[in-house]
Write a structure and sequence with these properties.
Length: 260
Amino acid sequence: MCNTWGMDKPDFRLDGKVAIVTGASKGIGADLARALAAAGARVALAARDEAALQTVADEIAAAGGEAATVAIDVSSVPSIEAGVAAVVDRFGRLDILVNNAGIGANHPAEEVTEADWDEMMDVNLRGLFFCCRAAGRVMLGQGSGRIVNISSQAGVVGIRDHVVYSASKGGVNMLTKVLALEWSERGVNVNAVAPTFIYTPGTAERLDQPEYLRGVLDRLPIGRVGTTTDVAAAVIYLASPAGGLVNGHVLVVDGGWTAQ
């Protein structure tokens, strides 16, 4: 019998798409920007300190990609709106938003201060939402777009001394689901990626300590911590045509941490 399903090959390319990556000056964000550019996207790198983004933008250009820098302070709604508008003015459209900017800290719950709570929520949840809103308004006007929010395994399961961080990332997960419900029928898919411990210059101080690393690996069935490439692979999938049917999902990239 002839196969009439008409199956197409999965398409992971992003040629010609315009993407914003927040928190793109270093670590996961910088490598996400590099990966999106390698997949064909024109990338706007965003951070509070625009000058700190130039090295990454130059690397992307040297590799044959196209990148621009834009100052966005995710704790400021006017800054978010101005930054998104500048990207649209530059490139004429906006297809992908990767909400990577975030902060983390360890606090025993009884020691959390009001300032601790407000700072983390302002960046990790409030700022992320208003980035979604600014980009979403552009994408809804186009009738298409992809938003990928960087969450954490700490938003799926509890982790000691991470009460504020876990609360902020749990909020990201639910925000992702609601936006997907509201926006997907108008062409905008919203998903999240929730990584485990990822080795970066920012986490190296802890993960390079043998005792600390042992404690992490005891919870990771896969036997290793994550890399920025692991996170980038998930983001590329969700941002690409291959991920078109995925919507309102939190893709946990955790080596099995939350399976226990």
